[in-house]
Amino acid sequence: MSMRAEIVRPLDVALEQLKSTAERIDLDPGIYEMLKRPKRSLVVSIPVKLENGEVKVFMGCRVQHNDARGPFKGGLRYHPDVTLDEVTALAMWMTWKCAVVDIPYGGAKGGVCCNPKELSKGELERLTRRYVSSILDIIGPFRDVPAPDVYTDAQVMAWIMDTYSQLKGYSVPECVTGKPIVIGGSEGRIEATSRGVVLCVKETAKRLGVEMKGATVVVQGFGTVGWNAAKIAHDLGCSIVGVSDSQGGVYCKKGLNPYEVREHKAKTGSVVGYQECASVTNEELLELECDVLIPAALENQITATNAADIRAKIVAEAANGPTTAKADEILREKGVFVIPDILANAGGVIVSYLEWVQNLEREHWALEEVNRKLANKMLNAFNDVYERAKDEELDMRTIALGQGIGRVGEAIKTLGIWP
Ligand code: NAD
Question: What pTM did the predictor assign?
Answer without folding.
Answer: 0.97
